[in-house]
Amino acid sequence: MEKVEGSGQDVKALEDKPEINPADRVYYTAFGMLSSSRQSGMSTNPFVLSEILVCAELLGMADVLEFVSIIQQLDSNVLEMHDGTTRSSTDSNSRPQQSKSGD
Predict the structure, then answer these.
(1) What is the pLDDT of residues 7-34, one digit of tens each?
(2) Any bridge partners for residue 60, and if so which?
(3) What pTM value is reported for the model?
(4) Cβ burial 19-39 (10 Å sphere, 16+ → b, else e)
(5) Residue 102 lies in a domain
(6) Which domain, by its residues, includes 57?
(7) How many alpha carbons fall within 13 Å on the CB side of residue 95?
(8) Is 78 contained in some domain?
(9) Which residues pair with 40 in a beta bridge?
(10) What is the reported pLDDT for 88?
(11) Number of domain units in the chain
(12) Minimal CB count within 10 Å: which of 3, 20, 38, 67?
């Protein structure tokens, strides 16, 4: 992506790319780190607290409780969106129910 951005080519997907406030960049970085270690099974699971704590330590976070709270809230929002996407794609793939009337 950096190659494309540096080449001067217009990429439609990047036109609406949000700017990340420098104060919030640490959460963006942490979320990326934690996403790569997310445990998945039949569904996507929330980040493990011990992983969040290790991430806080690696990033040198002074207020660990606030960091954990923010990361868990972000994760909860992502899981809600993921659940809604999964549910809507499952619903669209299901067959329509037959009418029970005697027509």
Answers:
(1) 667 777 777 778 889 989 999 999 999 9
(2) none
(3) 0.66
(4) eeeeeeebbeebbebbeeeee
(5) no
(6) 13-86
(7) 3
(8) yes
(9) 44
(10) 53
(11) 1
(12) 3
